[in-house]
Design a protein that fits this description.
alpha/beta; seven-stranded parallel β-sheet; elongated
């Protein structure tokens, strides 16, 4: 299950579709402003609210918010950026219904007769802003940020781009952002998402049929399509039918990362996982392994025979494998077998100076899992105006495989598919070895026959959920043991969803 993420231009298309379908603009504005007011009332007790309103739809939504809060008994002050005769039609009607005092744009926020505000509603600019904020509005932003008053942003914090593109100049840092119909990239992509605070999405009356007129720029993963523990006929199956994963280890002093990946693959559902160790690391790995099996490999020339002997369905290469020609040769040998390969860490960095040598051998069932530094090494700097989703999609198109860019709001892109974004994670996952665990989970999905895109996106959610369950202080060794609880919770969600669907289709 996913939720569509729309580009700024597409949200305008949805609004136009609603108007063409007979929905009045004021109906949309009333629904949006009321949604913001309701979100405020459920989170704060009554207090003095300042509404900073612009001239367009964003300002109109803010004026409705002001009126609804005042009707509920809250003290509200409206400060209008443009002069009243320069308002768009929707904002002009909302101002007429406000029917209260309006402070002019040159109001000195630091010298107010009614005291310091307890809350500021940012309704200055909408998601389409593509230029830096200057002048009075910039001064308002600076004053509010310095005062540390909570901010509720209408749609997005003013000063940011809805499409998560860099915009110079000041911007609000919101405690709460209320957006409408569908989220935008800015709500998910860092470093901008942190300035949105808590993000709530509300429907405002866009009628059915809107999706035929727009194509989402991404999907947000809500419930992953994880199914390595099922088969179509529902019958039990042998461990080998659940998938066989091979994980290649580094030398004796760098074998822990591969063990983390192997443990994760086994916990995530693979029936058989084998750690392939070079001679120097056989004994150190043997002293740590129990359910994970162990075999020896003697360099790139031995990779194909090793995988053939294991009848491997998926391979993990890279975690602490070592950077250089031996790693490059081993990766290329694994790719020659045609088995799906998860490439991480050293397996990627080893191709820093000749990435095309790697790309030319990849297939559509491979998954690359770089962090930001590895991504830059392999794919180089991006176009300055591209956002994160565009960068990852371009990388996937270039290499012909699925690319998962790790980090806050992980992005997963595959050629010919809409990218997925997974914000479901904990910042405590930023710890050594965490990415190795993710690689193992992905390999488990690939070994069970999942597509590269589904395995990568689902694994990102599962990995993130494990991080959220563990919370502060987690280390990578904690993650594999947490996977059963994650998968059991996911299975329960699927059963509940199936039961609800049956109930809706057939009644009680």
């Amino acid at each position: 299950m996913t939720m569509e993420i729309l580009a700024t231009a597409d949200t305008a298309v949805c609004d136009r579709f609603a108007l063409d379908s007979g929905i009045e603009v004021q109906s949309l504005v009333e629904a949006a402003g009321s949604a913001v007011a309701d979100a405020i009332r459920t989170r704060w007790a009554p207090r003095l609210v300042w509404v900073l309103a612009g001239s367009g739809h964003n300002g109109a939504d803010g004026l409705v918010t002001a009126r609804v809060l005042r009707e509920a008994g809250w003290p509200v002050r409206v400060i209008l950026l443009p002069s009243p005769d320069r308002l768009a039609a929707g904002a002009e009607r909302a101002l007429a219904r406000w029917a209260g005092p309006v402070d002019p744009p040159d109001t000195a926020l630091s010298d107010t007769p009614d005291g310091r505000p307890g809350l500021v509603v940012d309704a200055l600019f909408g998601a389409g802003l593509s230029r830096p904020i200057t002048g009075l509005a910039a001064g308002w932003i600076d004053w509010v940020r310095e005062s540390e008053v909570p901010v509720v942003a209408v749609d997005i914090p003013s000063g940011l781009s809805g499409d998560a593109r860099p915009v110079d100049g000041p911007h609000f840092a919101a405690t709460l952002t209320v957006t409408f119909h569908r989220k935008k990239l800015v709500h998910l992509i860092e470093p901008y998402a942190q300035s949105c605070g808590e993000v709530v999405r509300r429907e405002i009356g866009i009628p059915a049929g809107w999706s035929e007129h727009v194509a989402p720029v991404a999907h947000e993963v809500h419930t992953p399509l994880w199914h390595p523990d099922t088969r179509p006929d529902g019958r039990p199956f042998h461990k080998h039918a659940r998938g066989r994963v091979a994980v290649f280890s580094g030398g004796a002093r760098s074998s822990g990362a591969a063990r983390l990946a192997a443990a994760a693959a086994l916990r995530a559902g693979a029936g058989v996982v084998t750690l392939c160790a070079p001679p120097s690391a056989v004994m150190v790995n043997a002293s740590h392994l129990t359910a994970v099996m162990l075999t020896r490999w003697d360099g790139a020339a031995d990779v194909g025979d090793t995988l053939d002997g294991l009848r491997a369905d998926a391979v993990v290469m890279g975690p602490s494998m070592g950077v250089g020609e031996p790693a490059r040769d081993a990766v290329l040998a694994a790719l020659e077998t045609g088995i799906p390969v998860v490439l991480d860490a050293d397996a990627l960095t080893s191709f820093e100076h000749d990435p095309d040598a790697l790309f030319s051998q990849l297939n559509g069932q491979c998954v690359l899992t770089p962090h930001a530094g590895e991504f830059l090494r392999v794919f180089g700097p991006a176009q300055a105006h591209w956002n994160k989703v565009e960068r990852v999609q371009a990388a996937a198109d270039r290499c012909g495989s699925t690319v998962l860019l790790k980090g806050p709001a992980t992005v997963i892109a595959t050629p010919g598919m809409t990218p997925w974004i997974n914000p479901h994670a904990s910042r405590w996952l930023a710890t050594a070895g965490s990415g190795d665990v993710l690689a193992g989970i992905i390999a488990s999905g690939l070994a069970a026959g999942m597509t590269a895109h589904d395995a990568a996106a689902s694994a990102a959610w599962i990995h993130g959920d494990a991080g959220l369950k563990l919370g502060e202080g987690l280390v990578a060794e904690d993650l594999p043991a947490t996977l059963p609880a994650v998968l059991q919770g996911l299975a329960a969600r699927r059963r509940q969803g199936a039961a609800l669907s049956h109930l809706l289709a057939h009644g009680s």
